[in-house]
């Protein structure tokens, strides 16, 4: 059996960044920017007022001074003239600061009477002016590759970038396998259960920015599996669920190989997720996940997600790990790297008592996957341990 890290190296060799496409900014959130986006203007494009008040010359900004209001500057409407000695312009937040003014006195510090104002006895030291280009300047850029956050999208809009080049979404075909499965909402026979991890993986793929397609469930026969692989035609990644182990009805690996799948590996020294397989199938990468619901979901986070990130043009990295303080003692670990459902509370991590790979309810309640290396020695409360956020 190979290690998780060796398996990831094989998987990264099976995928490469997809081609770019251009999308309107309104559809750019969550997509991966392909090349740096360069600002087409300065922001703000003028020295602007940060407050509602009165624009004044520095020389006139004395406590108690009386000034004459000669006009108004509002957001979108500048005052065309300039301010001379003893003069002021009524100004609002976002308006260009008139020529001659070097500060804005907030209206709370002013008494107005007709076109005369009197400055208060205490003025703050701030200019309340945002200099031109103080946010960004023409030519400043947002670097790529980068998954565009809501804040990034706002920044791009501000840079007057209406369309962006992003990586095409990876097309992923999800094939559930097994005579025991029915789709959610259907009526199972007494021996059947509902396909669950299929939909968990679909949600994960949506979140990762892929384009998942849930195919009809393949039954435990060669012909049904062959048909499912046929339906997966056109996918960049084909993900099968179940039928990966050594039982008489576990046919996925055999059928895939008969259809030309070049196997990269089978079985990984991890728990859960041991009977994982992967390979190249025509133009697509193939990832065969174990059927146990938690195994499939854990492999989704540990293997499928990093593959998708590479296809999106992001760096080839394992799922990011963080560290936390263990909240209890743990006995010696086993021979396989163990991904344990755990609670993380106030910086302290505590694994669930039960770790059977069929228990989805525990996965749904877990905050993180605590990662124990193979042959981990006994651990004490307070030790630092690694985890992957869910
Ligand atoms: N003799 C051995 N038996 C098993 C081994 C082994 O090493 N030797 N490994 C066990 C491990 S570990 C796992 S994991 C499972 C993986 O088996 P398969 O990938 O062949 O999965 P199935 O047998 O098809 O299903 C296992 C389990 O999961 C349920 N399942 C399958 N697909 C779904 C789905 N889409 N949604 C919900 N539940 C699903 C299925 O009904 C089974 O209960 O093998 C062990 N056996
Ligand atoms: O690896 Mo299985 O995936 O332990 O349940």
Automatic annotation (TrEMBL):
Question: Which family would the database say this protein is a member of?
Answer: Belongs to the MoeA family.
Q: Look up the record and name the pathway of this protein.
A: Cofactor biosynthesis; molybdopterin biosynthesis
User: What InterPro entries does the entry give?
Assistant: MoaB/Mog-like_dom_sf, MoaB/Mog_dom, MoeA-like, MoeA_C_domain_IV, MoeA_C_domain_IV_sf, MoeA_linker/N, MoeA_linker/N_sf
- Which cofactor is essential here? Mg(2+)
Q: Reaction catalysed?
A: adenylyl-molybdopterin + molybdate = Mo-molybdopterin + AMP + H(+)
Q: Which regions form coiled coils?
A: none
Q: What is its EC number?
A: 2.10.1.1
**Under what name is this protein listed?**
Molybdopterin molybdenumtransferase
